[in-house]
């Protein structure tokens, strides 16, 4: 009885890991298009037939990607598995795009159904592709029996905690810049500042933290075990997530200043909201940067 | 110093011959329901909007006095079937047949049944003349 329960728990845990990896891949690939007004508009104005065609085409592409990469740790070898993974990639894309559009207040209770559906389907395309490319976006963690903690490299890492911390700060800044630099000068940030208020801003912050934690410590991307074992100044999972979020916000502020999007004469509250809103893509980029650099 | 990430040549996921677990089957069932619901929604729109009506833009406005200025908040709604882009709203105040104040605004996008709000601000009392707030133009996406 006990082994069966343990097996079930393992299966559920593995499934959750796969889904989290897929969601994180979706956000890494899809977040820049979420901050694009034109995609909201296209989704709102295209005919229902084109929406259906877009969804089915994406299903075909995610099927092909599932045959080669996918988001699961175990590669799909059977046709049925690849189809199943493609369906799940699309569904994850739809769910992530819907929740993010709600978070960014681009879908509200006042949004007409046809407009909401169009936005969801068009925004779900890059998310779904990102889910299917999860294994390709960042190298999967190596589960070989050789424990990195016991390697000379790991020991040296532990001894150079300060250097590791500085390297992580740099990686976070670079990753945040790569993802958010193309969003910072656009009008989307200003539009979203007007749309997102009060509790939605708080949700924005919590989502940024959750995604950052998920990408680095939960999605089983590159070097996850090594990151959990590191002993840098801020390198507990929670403290690293919090500190790197603050660093990503700093990067977002610097980018907004660089593009002269922060008006020194404007109220502090406005600038703060701009930074928090650009902070979401910056944080996702920062998390990816800490894994990739 | 962390080992380099081989982004160009990542290790492939391991092939698996195991049958799908119950957790995977539940995920697949939920995912299928999500897709069927979205496809069903799009299909419903397709069937119900075979011949969509062109945009019909209706505008309503009022006048409010605030701190020495006359505010004219307006709401423009697309009650037609198709989407209107670059909707231009203009307001003109004529006193004794002379155009004394005017303004214009552009609403980027109005899909079917969507509405947008805004306001014009006048220094003269609109009640002293003839105020016209109307949609002047739009373009198809």
UniProtKB/TrEMBL annotation, chain A:
Superkingdom in the source lineage: Bacteria
Bilayer-crossing regions: 20-42, 48-65, 86-104, 200-221, 242-259, 271-292
Keyword Membrane among record annotations: yes
Keywords, in A-Z order: Membrane, Transmembrane, Transmembrane helix
InterPro entries cross-referenced by the UniProt entry: CHP02587_IM, DUF2391
Database matches in Pfam families: DUF2391
NCBIfam families named among the record's database cross-references: TIGR02587 family membrane protein
Protein name: TIGR02587 family membrane protein
TrEMBL record, chain B:
Record keyword Transmembrane helix present: yes
InterPro entries, per database record: CHP02588 (IPR013417)
Protein name, per record: TIGR02588 family protein
Organism ancestry: Bacteria, Bacillati, Cyanobacteriota, Cyanophyceae, Leptolyngbyales
Species name: Phormidesmis priestleyi
Keyword annotations of the record: Membrane, Transmembrane, Transmembrane helix
NCBIfam families assigned: TIGR02588 family protein
Membrane-spanning segments: 25-47
């Amino acid at each position: 009885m006990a082994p069966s329960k343990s097996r079930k728990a393992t299966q559920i845990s593995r499934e959750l890991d796969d889904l989290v990896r897929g969601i994180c891949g979706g956000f890494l690939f899809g977040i820049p298009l979420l901050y694009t007004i034109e995609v909201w508009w296209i989704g709102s104005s295209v005919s229902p037939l084109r929406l259906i065609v877009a969804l089915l085409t994406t299903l075909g592409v995610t099927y092909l990607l599932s045959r080669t990469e996918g988001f699961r740790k175990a590669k799909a070898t059977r046709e049925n598995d690849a189809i199943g993974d493609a369906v799940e990639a699309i569904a994850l894309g739809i769910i992530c795009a819907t929740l993010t559009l709600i978070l960014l207040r681009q879908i509200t209770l006042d949004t007409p159904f046809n407009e909401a559906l169009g936005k969801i389907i068009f925004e779900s395309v890059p998310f779904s592709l990102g889910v299917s490319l999860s294994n390709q976006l960042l190298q999967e963690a190596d589960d070989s029996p050789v424990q990195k903690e016991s390697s000379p490299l790991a020991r040296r890492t532990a001894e150079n905690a300060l250097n590791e911390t500085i390297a992580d700060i740099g990686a976070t800044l670079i990753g945040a810049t790569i993802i958010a630099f193309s969003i910072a000068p656009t009008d989307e940030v200003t539009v979203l500042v007007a749309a997102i208020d009060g509790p939605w801003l708080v949700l924005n912050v919590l989502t940024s933290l959750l995604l950052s934690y998920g990408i680095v410590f939960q999605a089983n991307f590159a070097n996850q075990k090594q990151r959990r074992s590191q002993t840098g100044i801020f390198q507990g999972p929670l403290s690293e997530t919090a500190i790197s979020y603050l660093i990503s916000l700093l990067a977002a502020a610097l980018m907004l200043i660089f593009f002269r999007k922060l008006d020194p004469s404007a109220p502090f509250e406005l600038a703060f909201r701009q930074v928090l809103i650009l902070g979401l893509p910056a944080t996702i980029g920062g998390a990816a940067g800490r894994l990739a650099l | 110093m962390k080992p380099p990430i081989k982004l160009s040549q990542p290790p492939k996921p391991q092939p698996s011959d195991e049958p799908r677990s119950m957790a995977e089957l539940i995920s697949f069932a939920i995912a299928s329901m999500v897709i069927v619901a979205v496809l069903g929604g799009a299909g419903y729109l397709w069937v119900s909007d075979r011949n969509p009506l062109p945009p019909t833009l209706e505008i309503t406005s009022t006048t409010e006095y605030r701190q020495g200025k006359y505010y004219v908040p307006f709401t423009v709604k697309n009650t037609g079937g198709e989407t209107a882009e670059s909707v231009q709203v203009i307001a003109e105040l004529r006193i004794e047949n002379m155009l004394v104040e005017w303004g214009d605004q552009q609403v980027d996008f109005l899909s079917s049944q969507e509405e947008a709000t805004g306001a014009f601000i006048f220094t003269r009392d609109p009640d002293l003349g003839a105020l016209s707030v109307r949609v002047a133009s739009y373009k198809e996406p």
